[in-house]
Prior knowledge:
With about 325 residues, the first copy, chain A, is an alpha/beta fold. Chain A has 14 helices and ten strands.
Amino acid sequence: MPSLIERYNDPIHEARARLEGYLPPTPLASSRFLSARAGREVWLKLETQQPTGSFKARPALNGMLAYHEQARAAGVVTSSSGNFAQAVAYAASELGVDARIVMMEEASAFKRERTESFGGRVVLCANTFAARWETTLRIRQESGRLLLHPYDSVETIAGDGTLGLELLAQLPGAFTVLAPISGGGLIAGIALAVKAARPECRIVGVQAQANPSMQRSLEQGKRIASASAPAESLADALSVAVPGESTFQVAQELVDRVVLVSEEEIARAVRLLALEQKLVVEPGGAVAAAALLAGAAPPDGSPVVCVLSGGNVHPAVLSSILGDR
Amino acid sequence: MPSLIERYNDPIHEARARLEGYLPPTPLASSRFLSARAGREVWLKLETQQPTGSFKARPALNGMLAYHEQARAAGVVTSSSGNFAQAVAYAASELGVDARIVMMEEASAFKRERTESFGGRVVLCANTFAARWETTLRIRQESGRLLLHPYDSVETIAGDGTLGLELLAQLPGAFTVLAPISGGGLIAGIALAVKAARPECRIVGVQAQANPSMQRSLEQGKRIASASAPAESLADALSVAVPGESTFQVAQELVDRVVLVSEEEIARAVRLLALEQKLVVEPGGAVAAAALLAGAAPPDGSPVVCVLSGGNVHPAVLSSILGDR
C-alpha cells in the first residue's frame, strides 16, 4: 500500500496547478522582533494576504475546480465557522457557482457579513456542531449540491498542501513549521507537502487550550469529540467538533508535536503582531506566534515558520486587544 | 553634465550592495479589495515589514555603512519625527555605533519609546523645525558626530532608491508608483531607480492636505516652507519644514504628479487596510492607498503600486480609527 505521502503527492501538485492563475504565493516575511525573542530566524507565512484574509481560499478553490462541472450545474454547500465560508463565497463568485454556506447562529457576525459581501448565501442553524452538519447534509440531499468539506477531504487537504510547496520554494534547508489546528486540514496538507521533500523538517501543531481536540485525540490514539458546541475562546476559527478522519491519520504519522496556548497568550500574540509586526491577525490565526512566544520552538535553534492563517477579526475585538497592556 | 539619473545610478547600486546582508526585499502583496475598487491590478509594497516598521531602515543603514569609520569613531546624530529616529537607533545598534537623535517634545510618544527600545538616545527640543535643526547642528559641532540627514543627502536618497530596484525585480512592464512625500527622499529615490530602467513608469507623490509642502513648491517652482511647526494631522510621519534641495530637484524632473488627501481619506484608508487587507499601516504610511481610493490612479488602467511606507501607529490611535464607521 502506498504511504500517505505517496497518496497525496499527485493531489497536492494538481492543486498547485489548479490554483496557479488564482492565488499568487503569499509572502514569507522575516520577523525581527520574533527572531530576537526566540533566538533564531523566524519567518511568518502571511495567509492573511489571501483574497479572503485566510488560507481557506486554497481548499475552497481547489475543491470547486476539481469538480467544476458538478459545482456549476448543482451549486455547492458547506459548513463553516466563518473563514471557509468567506473562501467558498469568494471562489463561487470567481467561478460562477451558486453557494449555500451553513453557519451557526452564534458564529462571528463579522465573518457572516463578509461572507455575504463576497456574494455567499448563508443558511443559519442552531449553535451545535451536530445541527450544523445535519443542515449541511440535508441541503446536499435536497439539492444535489457538491459538498465541500472544510477540512476532511483529499481536495481540501491537497489545497492546504500548496502552502507547504510554497514554503519549500521560499526557504532552503531544514525548518520547523508552527501551524494552527482546527479540523486538521491545514497541518495535514503542510506536513504531507513538506515532509515529502524534506523529511528533516518538523511540523508542530498549535491549538487553543479551550479546544484541544487534536491534542487529546493524538494522546489517546483515537478521535475524541471535545464538545457539542464551540468552546468560549477568542480563537473562533479553531472551534471544531472532532478531528477529521484523514487529517487525524496524517497527524498521527507526520505531525511531530501539538502544543496548547492559553487565551492570554493568544491575545498577547495578536497585540504584539499588530504593534511590532504591523499585521492584523485574528486570534485563531495567531496561535502559532503565541506558541513561539511561549517557548514552543525546538531547542536546536533551527529556523521557524509561523503560519499566520487568518486575519478576520472584528474591529471591536481588535480594538479591545490593542487597548490591553 | 550628467543627468540626475546618471548621477544617482552608482550610489543606488552601491546602497543595494551595502544593505544586502541586512534587509531582505520587502514583500509586494497583491490586494484584491483595492484592485476591485480601482479597477486594475493593485500591489502593495510592505515597508511596514522592515525591522523598525518603516522604509527608513534603508537610508539609516546606508548612511551609516557609507561612512562607517567616522560613525564608529565619533557616533552619529540626526533629527526625526520618529520613523528615521527608530531606524537610526536600530542601525546604530546593529553596527555598534553611538547615536543621538533629536526629536521635538511633542513628537509621537509611541515613536520615542520605540526609538529608545532600539537603544537610541533621544535628545528633546522645542516644537519647531528651526529648534530641531539648530539642536542637531549644535550636537554635530560639539561632538564631531556624523550627521545623517533624514531625506536630503545622496546616501539617504540612494538608500531609498533600493526600494525602486526591488519593484523593478518584483513587477514586469510599466506601472505607476504612488508613494508618500515628506521631505521627498523616498519619492526621489524611487523615481531615480525606476525611471533609470523603465522611463515609461509613472511616479505619483502623495501628501496630506495639512502639509502640502512639496505640492506647493512644485506649483511655484521653488522650495516653499509651509509652516514653522508640524501641522495638526494624523500623518505625523509626513510633517516637514520644507522639501530638500536635492529631493526638490529630482521631484521637479522625475515626479509626474503630486496629489493631496484629506484627514478623513487618510483615516478611511488606515481602517480599510486593517480590516480588508489585514495590515497595520500608520496614517502617514497609508496616504498612497488613500489617494488610490480617492481616484488618483492614471486613467489608462495600468497596474499601480502603493508604497505602504510605515506602520508605527499608537495603539490608541489605531483603536480609535477602527472604532469609526
